[in-house]
Amino acid sequence: MDPIREAMLKKSHSAKLERRGKTISLVCISLIVIVVVAIFFFVASKGLATFFQNKINLWSFLTKSVWNPSMKDAHGNPEVGALPMIVGSFGVTFLSAIIATPFAVGAGIFMTEISRKWGQKILQPVIELLVGIPSVVYGFIGLSVVVPFIRHIFGGTGFGILAGTFVLFVMILPTVTSMTVDALKAVPRHYREASLALGATRWQTIYRVVLRAAIPGILTGIVFGMARAFGEALAVQMVIGNAALLPKNLVSPASTLTSVLTSGIGNTVMGSLENNALWSLALLLLLMSLAFNLLIRWIGKKGELNK
Amino acid sequence: MKKIVTLFTIMLLAFMASACGSGSNSKQSGESITAVGSSALQPLVEAAGEQYQTEHLGVFINVQGGGSGTGLSQIQQGAVDIGNSDLFAEEKPDINAKALVDHKVAVVGIAPIVNPSVGVKNVTMTQLQQIFLGQITNWKQLGGKNVPIVLVNRAQGSGTRATFEKWVLQGKQPIAAQEQDSTGMVRQIVGSTPGAISYVAFSYINKTVQSLSVDGVAPTDANVTTNRWRIWSYEHMYTKGQPRGLTKRFLAYIMSSPIQKKLVQKMGYIPVTQMKVVRDASGRVSKE
Amino acid sequence: MNPKIADKVATTVLYIISGIIIIILASLLGYILFQGVPHISWHFLTSPAQSFEAGGGIGVQLFNSFYLLVLAMLISTPISLGAGIYLSEYAKKNWLTDAIRTSIEILSSLPSVVVGLFGFLIFVLQFKFGFSILSGALALTVFNLPLLTRNVEDSLRGVSDEQREAGLALGLSRWETVLHVVIPEALPGIITGMILGAGRVFGEAAALIYTAGQSAPALDFTNWNPANIASPLNPFRPAETLAVHIWKINSEGIQPDAVAVSAGASAVLVIAVLIFNLSARYFGNRLFKKMTAA
């Protein structure tokens, strides 16, 4: 074989590097996928045992409202009705996301479009700092400030969905805001320039161009915020009252999937019905956030600008 | 960038190497046992463990919480050396109590606590039962102020709740109400919510809450030792089979009179050696 | 409405919203610091905790928190970097990639107690790491990976394609372009994500209760041999972190000064995160300047 042909066919240094790099990144992503699959499998195998091993009817699990796994009802079936927790979880998640979104988007626009200097010097560090405050501390502030405040204004005990919403609002605000900022920053500058050149005011530019272009990113931020609200346990547990009752209004004690899960898991014996039922709640949590994700992804696709 | 990646890799490898190296060595540097379970018993075992370690160099006693259920399931599987529990293993279904050996190391009395503003200091056992069954809903029905009663329960399956339900409600189900799984939270909520009632171990009673006497009997250690105060439970340390080696020595240390007389009492538990009565898993009481 | 007036109104509203956020955040921080700072002293920061007497400190917990944070970030940063690069640069646009993305997002919504129990059954019992820093760091990695990966991917995507094209046009391979062009450009975003992740790790309690444990045996700070059980560096010792300590004394603490210890520890935690953030930002900026030859 002639040397030129050989040299041409030999893989270059770059090609080798490229191959190695691709392999490394592939290994990393596979590692994550393995972890995800392992956790899914782990939660599913425990959570499904309630239905297959303990023969609980899935429908009654989702629609009954009495949660007392160690007790049997009149028909001799264990009382595992997760409806109060489902309602509670959805309630606090949606409400806190609804309150947090305008604030996060407003702050995001302020930080990227109106006053970059102030935004980056003051708002951003403070917001990042807030992420580091442990949920226990949020919970205690909620308990000593928010709950008495609500009791004072609305009556009742102060514990309930409203208190949970307030605490979660502050907790998810940093996540949603910083992701909104990232999304807004990712909008190319020429979009803004083009709009301004057409004679649009700053607000028109923001509202008609920048926000539209950033919608998928903002929605992702909201999903992440909701995900955090959904999965948050310690803080919510302290202020929501943690009663497995269907909430009558926003200030009556309620519970979420996570609060019941967290408070019960250490007290149950692994493999028992009580324990399996709690894992079913965890599985439910996974499935519900899956549904959320798909929904938001769909909305995001609709709202996306055609690039 | 390359440098950073290399640096990371080196650090990671170095860490892994040290981790693996020490993994095989840590057992040689001394004996160690692990005790897991009841968060109510954890402070005592931890303190005793610390004291034991200072007196016996080279041993290591690892104490973790996690709840009675965790303690019993882990000791049943043999994953730990000692499983701490507030309940008799017989009281938990799905636990094979025969395979476990019970070591009762202390007694804990449980008292109903209320928000100081309710204006009630003594109730009868029947009244207490009616409160938790939802039949009495306002403190004025018991001669207190006109405040609605706010129930705060412990989490389902918790040892404290099981004990309270067994001796106060006698197996009846309380109405669904707020639940909290930690004593500190319960105390904080009762202390700050008007009309609230719950129950905690004696050692957690402080100025922020008011404890209730039942049928004129005050919640004191002395009343527990004679069983005049009936709401109490043993703190159990379970081993799988008869304890051996360090586990055996450590359990003997906890039962020794210096620990029982000083540490146990100082931390607000009642020494098991002071009990004048014995109670078995089914609740039968006999004089010692 | 006249567009100019609308512009003014909108700007005012945005100012008000930002103002409200700053007020909420400032009062929150103020509350924590005001309650906690009076309890902080040198003694508090350096002495070991007391299980039932007053006067305990948080020295060991503080060290544990930092050590655990470093280990967790050391494990999760390279993995998330690699995974993020794959998702943004190599992954094809198909259902498999979509499925991977969705599963990562769902993983991030798992309550941390589930991650903790997963870690307990897998790392503590299955791998026999015991209640240890290593188990804790691995659990935190599981908990941290989704957020970091997502962040790396987003930051890399934010880099305009012209940069990539320029790199490729110079004859660099895709991998080299990523390493030398794209990552340096995306670095500020990546660092912000790391800071957020680190903050979450620092304040996490539920995932650690069952993995790193809730006891903090006294450490011998003169012994730096990682194989010794009393050495601060030993990754196989149980390690209660600051956040777990706060959780523990709030839930079952019988120390007479539990409230003060908890307030002080919260304040220390917040201050530590603050210092950490500021320094990470400073070094991030310097790194950015150095790597982009600005």
Automatic annotation (TrEMBL), chain A:
Keywords, A to Z, come to: Cell membrane, Membrane, Phosphate transport, Transmembrane, Transmembrane helix, Transport
Renumbered to this chain, the signal peptide range is none
Ranges where the ABC transmembrane type-1 domain occurs: 86-296
Bilayer topology term: Multi-pass membrane protein
Q: Name one Pfam family in it.
A: BPD_transp_1
GO BP annotations of the record are:
phosphate ion transport
* NCBIfam families in the record: phosphate_pstC
What is the role of the protein in this entry? Answer: Part of the binding-protein-dependent transport system for phosphate; probably responsible for the translocation of the substrate across the membrane.
Under the heading PANTHER family, the entry gives: ABC TRANSPORTER PERMEASE PROTEIN YQGH-RELATED (PTHR30425:SF2), PHOSPHATE TRANSPORT SYSTEM PERMEASE PROTEIN PST (PTHR30425)
Name of the protein described by the UniProt record: Phosphate transport system permease protein
Q: Which organism is it from?
A: Lacticaseibacillus chiayiensis
From TrEMBL, chain B:
Per the UniProt entry, the signal peptide is 1-19
Q: Does the keyword Transmembrane apply?
A: no
Give the UniProt keywords, A-Z.
Cell membrane, Lipoprotein, Membrane, Palmitate, Phosphate transport, Signal, Transport
Name a biological process GO annotation: phosphate ion transport
GO MF assignments:
phosphate ion binding
Q: A GO CC term?
A: plasma membrane
Location(s) in or outside the cell = Cell membrane
This protein's assembly is summarised as:
The complex is composed of two ATP-binding proteins (PstB), two transmembrane proteins (PstC and PstA) and a solute-binding protein (PstS).
Its biological purpose = Involved in the system for phosphate transport across the cytoplasmic membrane.
Task: Spell out the protein name for this chain.
Answer: Phosphate-binding protein
What does UniProt list as this organism's lineage? Bacteria, Bacillati, Bacillota, Bacilli, Lactobacillales
UniProtKB/TrEMBL annotation, chain C:
Q: Does the keyword rRNA-binding apply?
A: no
Bilayer-crossing residues are: 12-34, 66-87, 99-123, 129-148, 258-280
Domain ABC transmembrane type-1 span(s) in chain numbering = 62-280
Q: Does the keyword Transport apply?
A: yes
Cross-referenced InterPro entries, in alphabetical order?
A: MetI-like, MetI-like_sf, Phosphate_PstA
- Cellular localization per UniProt: Cell membrane
Naming one, the record's GO cellular component terms include:
plasma membrane
Q: Could you tell me which NCBIfam families the record lists for this protein?
A: 3a0107s02c
Query: What is the protein's name according to its record?
Result: Phosphate transport system permease protein PstA
Q: Which species is the source of this protein?
A: Lacticaseibacillus chiayiensis
Q: Lineage from the top down?
A: Bacteria, Bacillati, Bacillota, Bacilli, Lactobacillales
Please name the gene that encodes this protein: pstA
